[in-house]
Structures are given as structure tokens and as C-alpha cells.
Amino acid sequence: MTYLIDGLQYSNWSERIFRQLRAGGVDAVHVTLVYHENFRETVAVVERWNRWFERWPELIFQAFTADDLALAKATGRTAIFFGAQNPSCIEDDIGLVQVLHRLGLRFMQLSYNNQSLLASGCYEAEDTGLTRMGREVVTEMNRVGMVVDMSHSGERSTLAAVEHSARPIAVTHANPASWHPARRNKSDAVISALAETGGMLGFSLYPHHLNGGSACELSDYCTMIARTAERFGTEFLGIGTDLCQDQPDSVVEWMRTGRWTKSVDFGEGSKDAPGFPAMPNWFRDARDFGNLRGGLRSVGFSDAEVAAMLGGNWARFFAASFGPEMRGEVERAAE
């Protein structure tokens, strides 16, 4: 069975967007619940999603395991997997990893641009790698079945997470830095490490991560994916659009600034007041996945390769990542 899966969105959710997901045939989306919100604030966002699931059950439902992909396909709905773009939601309490996993959190970034209690962000002058707590939290995430996401983390921290994690990790939304040298994009060393360990790279469509920004051509984007596949293989590649559809510009300030500063952090891509850049004209919302499918075919990918990168690889990764670590039971059964 083939699936269409978006590895990351932070849209301003509404019935209109949910219907666009269905029109685009999107079977599953990893949605960002929170950035800098604490635990109680995160629970409030889960409550908001619960109301949406109740209001539009014919369009969306909360997903917990990879088996929910088949349910989404069978019922014509979009499966929603929760994620966090910063570890603020666990505060300084490792026990909240399991609590949030039980609430449905399946991804958590170890840092969002800045230094966190767990790892260094890509905007820090010094990347110190995983902290002591970071190593413990990664181990706990491995145990319960929560994906370690290093999309906004620094190079040393990301490579340390790959090495320390007993399960493959993900960079859900980024592109090769060799194609466009944004701070958020990833080096060949990181991409190679993901490929070698069974991790996942979700190619981003956020304009600040694109060569040429909002004017990036579909052919350039798809050629970049082809070059990455030629070097590292296709088995670990997916799409994480980083679509922030219908979000007000004020949200960018929260994303970049949170509560850690009184001044405005302009962040990547702009020296002016922060705001969302326009999406490329060939990908404005989920209904445009067909353009991406055609672009990938035009640069030489087979239908099977396109299907894998648009969902099959994510589906396999979900199946290996979302359940509890079974190592102990397997070892006991073998005795």
C-alpha cells in the first residue's frame, strides 16, 4: 500500500486546511504542537486538537502507531501525529517524556535554534553536543517510542544524537547545506550519518531553506533531491514541507524568541520584522503534492522511488519508531 505523508507542518489549522489535506490525498501529517510552551500549555494544545477531532471526524483523527496509516487510507481521512519543536514541554522532568508519549507525542526536537537543557541549537556560537540530561532523555525517548528530531540543532549535537540513540533519528525538515547554506540546513556529514543508521531526512519547502527562496524553481528543488539520492541513496529520504499555512506573522516572533529574550530575534532570512515568506508558486498547500510528484519523475526517479520518498520511507520509519523498545523481551525470548 502506498501512502502520502508530510513529515512536518505548523499550519494554522482549520476546516479549510483539513479539507485541502484530503483534496491532496495526504494520508498522514506530523504536526507541530508546540515550540516554547511548558507542559501544561502543551496539554492545552492537545485539548484543542481533541475538539478538532470531535468536530471533523470525517476528515482527521489522532494517530498513535504506524497501523493508523492503513486506517487513514481505508477511511479516507488524514492521520495526525503530534510533535514538539523544542523540549520545553518536558520542562526539567524526564518523566514527562512517557506522559507526553501517552498523550500522543511521537516526535520531539532536542533544541530549537538555541541551547536547551538537552542539546545545542544551530544558532549558538558554540555547539557543546548532548548534555548529560540530553543523553538520558534520548535513552528515554528510545525506550517509549518517541522520535529524536534534530532539525534545528547544531552539527555536533546532531551527530552526537545519531551516535547515542539506540534507534534511528530524524531530521524532519531541512535541506543539504551544500545546496543552500542556511544555518538550519544540514552538512553532508549529518546526511551521511542519517543514511548509514537508518534515519530519515525530510526535505523542507520553507523558503528560507531553499536556493532562491520563494523564487526557487521546482526543477532546482527536485534536482537537489536527485543529487542527494545519487550520493546517499533513496531509502531514508522523505518530505517535511514545514508548511506554515495561514499563520499570522506574529507567530514567527514566538517561534524565534519565545521567552528567552526581551528583544526580537529576527532569525534566519530577514533583517526586518519577522514574518512568513511566500511559498513557491508550485507548492502553496497540500493540494500541490501532485506538482512535487511530477517534478521528481521529471528528474529521473521511478514511480516506485517517488512513492517511497512521498510516504513509503516515512511509513517504514514510523513502524520502527513509534512502539516501545522491545530489546528486553526479544533477549528474554531468545534465552
List low-pLDDT spans. 329-335
Q: Quick one: CATH class? A: Alpha Beta
Overall mean pLDDT stands at 94
Share of helical residues:
40-55%
In whole angstroms, how far apart are the ends? 36 Å
CATH topology: TIM Barrel
- DSSP strand count: 9
SS summary, helix count: 12
| CATH architect. name | Alpha-Beta Barrel
Q: Strand share of the residues?
A: 5-15%
Question: What labels would you give this structure?
Answer:
335 residues, 6-stranded parallel β-sheet, TIM Barrel, 3-stranded parallel β-sheet, disordered C terminus, 12 helices
Overview of this structure, please?
This protein is of the alpha/beta class and about 325 residues long. It has one domain (about 5-335): TIM Barrel (Alpha-Beta Barrel). Helix content is about 40%, strand content about 10%. It has 12 helices and 9 strands. It has helices spanning about 15-25, 40-55, 65-75, 95-105, 130-145, 155-165, 190-195, 220-230, 250-255, 290-300, 305-320, 325-335, and strands at about 5-10, 30-35, 60, 80-85, 105-110, 145-150, 170, 200-205, 235-240. Strands 1, 2, 3, 4, 5 and 6 form a 6-stranded parallel β-sheet that branches. β5, α5 (about 130-145) and β6 (about 145-150) form a beta-alpha-beta unit. The two termini are about 35 Å apart.
